[in-house]
Structure formats: structure tokens, C-alpha cells
Design goal:
CATH architecture of the largest domain: Up-down Bundle
Helix content: over 70%
Largest sheet: none
Shape: globular
CATH class of the largest domain: Mainly Alpha
Number of strands: 0
Distance between the termini: 30 Å
Strand content: under 5%
Number of helices: 17
CATH superfamily of the largest domain: MFS general substrate transporter like domains
Order of helices and strands: HHHHHHHHHHHHHHHHH
Amino acid sequence: MKEKYYPWLLLSVTSLGVLLATLNLSTLNVALPEVVNHFHASGVASNWILLSYMLVNTIFILVFGKIADIFGRRGMYLFGLSEFTIVSFLCGFAPNVWVLILLRALQALGGALIITNTTPLITDAFPAKKLGTGLSINILVASIASLIGPVVGGFLVYHLGWRWVFWFNVPVGIVGVIWGFFTLRAVPGEAKGEKVDWLGNITAFFGLGGLILALSEVGVAGWLSFPVVAGVILFVVLAIFFFQIEKHAKFPMIDFSLFYDRPYAMANLATFFNSLARSSVVLLIALFYQVVDLENPFTAGLKVVPITIGVMIGSLIVGMLTAKYSARLLSTLGLFGTCIGMLILTWKIGIHASLFWISLGQLLIGIGTGVFQTPNTQSIMLTVPHERRGVANGIRSMLQNMGAVISTALSLMIVTSVLPLHLKKAIYSGAGAHLVQEDTHLIVTGYRIAFLMMLFLTLFAIAASFLRNTKKEGALKHPI
């Protein structure tokens, strides 16, 4: 295999993994009401169909990032792809909602192995001058998967049933494993002698789990209910404990010394706030069209396509600009686009909302996200030593996923918190909710509050991105 072709062959392998992991999330966002109705799931169980995957994936991204740095990335990536494919097949046979939730958690382990190794594999294979192109193509593939995911998910669940939303992942995974086995080079780990911080990881898992439990329960049970109070206390206590553990750990889960570098710290903070702001938009819009406008899953899937078209456009544009303009400028401009999109959704969401305005809002959020992600990721990966890239990417992915899981729980909590008890499950029931006009007005109010919250979170992301460096970004070998 000629050296000049290897980066592109490797990119074809990682693209299949990204395609698989992204399809898994985007198809289920549209299919959720059908899954909920099939199992007659409660509001809390409905939340955890999504949250179980996101929580486990978030924590184990860092665990596997360290393990990959120690033992090498090829075997870890291929094992993750194989495990994800097998569990996707089993998800379609789940006999009840709690078995499905457990399988989703197991599926998340494979997803974490895929995601934590993708960006470091690309970063190691591509020369610095072409890295921006490689990363932008990686994001473009994720964008295409996000684009076709809601449409494919809606089509499958509408014509074949919800089980095919999981079984559809299987052929993609099989092709990815076979192609990766013959293509990827075995590269030894570069952090020999280091160990996994199991105590830190377990503490983080249960701490974040407490927060997510509280957010998922508060919309149904109220702030003073036992699960909510217990979840908040668990989160606060374990967060304090976690920082003490990491402060004294020889091989910490999170290397806080990396955050002494201001551009690195601000880029990661921008990643978190951007993910916290925009991750639940597709889910909310897909549920909105099914609950309020009584659309079927396929039609609802078509109506969330603009956001992923926007990500594709933004990724293509920024791929040509990363070598000319700084990460600070490009990332901040991208977030401004997202901010305008959030403003439009907050203003225009409602009963019989104009498809043009809702689509425009999603398109701008997508373009802004596409412009933001590539230079911001490149900035993070190139400001750390080569042997720490697995850990750095793990932290970036963890913060992005943590933002996504909190965004999902928080936005659904806000929407349901304004509803009376008998309506709280209606958000997940699609066209089967049978709402009267007064009910619909309450749901719209919840949506407006949720999008307003996302708008303010985007402003925090803008501030973090802009403040990453007050001087000219000259620390890297080439401009980003």
C-alpha cells in the first residue's frame, strides 16, 4: 500500500464507523414515538431509551481513549465496530423497554470505541497540511449520515416497523469491520506504562448519571421528588469527590494540565456549550411535527433534513478556509450562524408554524455547526503532544457527548415541565397523543422556552470561542 494513499484508505474505514454511529442516533430520534407506543413506555423510560446510550457513551469515550493510547487504536476500533453491529442486531429483538434500554447501554460501549479512535487515527495518518481536509470529510460523512438518518428512520419505522431502525445498522457494520481488518495498520500504543483511572471513571459515571436522572425525572415528578433530590445530591457530592481524585491520581481520567493552555481550554469549553445548545434540536423538531402537526415519522424525518444539509454546506465551506483563517475567527463565526438559527426557531415555532422559517432556522444552525466543528477540532488536536492525542480527543468527545446527553434531558425536561400530568407522556407519543387545542398551546410554550434556553447557551459558546486567545494564533505549525 503506497504511503500517499493510506490516509485516504484509512478515512474510508473511519467514515464507515462514523456513518454507523451517527445513523444510530439520527434514525432513533424520528422513530422514538413508535418505540414508545410499542412498549407503552412511561415518560421516564422514554427518556432513557436515548439517555442510556448517551450516558454510557460519554463516560467510556475517555476510558477507551486512554486504553487506545496504551495498547494501540486498530484493534480497539475494530472490536468496537464489531460489538456495535452485534448489539444493534439484538436491539431489534428486545422483549420490553428495559431490555432495550440495557442493550442501548451495551451498544454505547461499541460506539465509544468507534468515536474515541476515529479522530486520532485520522490525525496520525494525515500530514498537517491536509489534516483540515481529512477532518472536514469526516464531519461531512457524519453530516450525510445525519441527513439520511431521519429520512431512513422515518421510512423504515413507517413501512417495516421500529426494529428495522436497529437492523439497518448491521450491513454497514459488517462492511466496516471487513474493510477495516484488511486496511488499517497495526500501530503500537505510545503511552506504555500508563494505567486507566478506574476510580475516576466510576465516580464520573455515577455523578453524571445522578444529574441525568434528576433532569429526566423533574419534568414528571417535580423538583422536590426523591429521585430528583437524590440525583442532584449524588451529582454534587461525586463532582467534588471526582476533582479530588483527579487532583492526586498518577494517571488521571482527565489531564487537567492540558487546560493550562488557554486556546485548548477555550476550544473545549466552546465544544461543550455548542453541543449543549444544539444537540437536541433534531429530536425536538421531529417530535414537534409528529405531536403537534400529526405527521407520520417519514414526513417528520424529511422536515428535519435542513439542519444536516446545513452541516454539510458548512463543512464544505470551512474545509477550504482552515489553512487561511484562524480557528478563533471561523469557529466564532459559525456559532453566530447557530445563534441566528436558534433565534428564528424561538420566534417562529408554533401551531401551523411556517415550514420556511422552521427550515431556515435549522439550516442556519447546521451551517453554523459545520463551520464551527472542523477548525475547533483541529485546534484542539494540534495543540497537544502527539502521544496525548488519544486523551485529548477523548476529552473533546466526552465534553461533546456530555453536552448532548444533558441537552437531551434538559430540553425534554423544559418542554414537559409546563405540562399537566396527563400530558407529560404526550410529547413522546407522536400522532397518537390526541391533543386538544389548549394542550397544543401548552406544548408550544414549552418548545419556545427550550429554544430560548438553547439560544442563551449558544451565546456562552460564542464567548468561549472568541476568548480562546487574545493574541495571534501562532502556536501551531500552520495557521488554523
